[in-house]
Structures are given as C-alpha cells and as structure tokens.
Amino acid sequence: MKITFSYSPDEQKQVNTYKKMIMKEAAPYSMRIKQGQEVDQHGRKRLYMTTRTEQETERIKAKEMAAGVRAINRRLDRIENSLGRRDKSLNTHFENK
Q: What's the domain of life for this entry (predicted)?
C-alpha cells in the first residue's frame, strides 16, 4: 500500500493528524514514512507512506530489540562503575556454565 499526501504549509497540522491516525491503525514497524524535501512550483510538499514487507518488519523489530539490550547493558555498566564494583567476583553479567 502506498499513500501520498500533497499539502501546503498551512495544511501541515491536518496532515500530521491523518498520519497519526494511520500509524495508530498499522502494525508496529510496518510503515515507512518519507518526507519530501523538495517543494513543487505551487509551494506544496509531499509525504509518502508505504508498507514494509514482512521480512523488513521482522528485521527492524530485531534491530530495535538489540538496541534496547545494548542500552540496558550500558546502564548496568554505569551503575557498576558508580558503585565501584569492578571486582571480577561481583560481576553481574550472566555466563553459560
């Protein structure tokens, strides 16, 4: 599915409302949004919304989950550093045994 909005600058608020409504109904990570940077001869901008394939959606979800895990690990490292627990016996990271 492909949706194209062509709008003037004073219609920006209305286009944002429609975009939010569409994104609310769509599955998470299933839509790709591209804002056209060029303005046509009538001063109108373009907004393109297309659906992603199932493979692209799964890849994006996996990428977001990996980023979340990295962020949690960074926070744990900061907490360990602030507590001064860099001793190997107090390591909080899980190991396979």
A: Bacteria
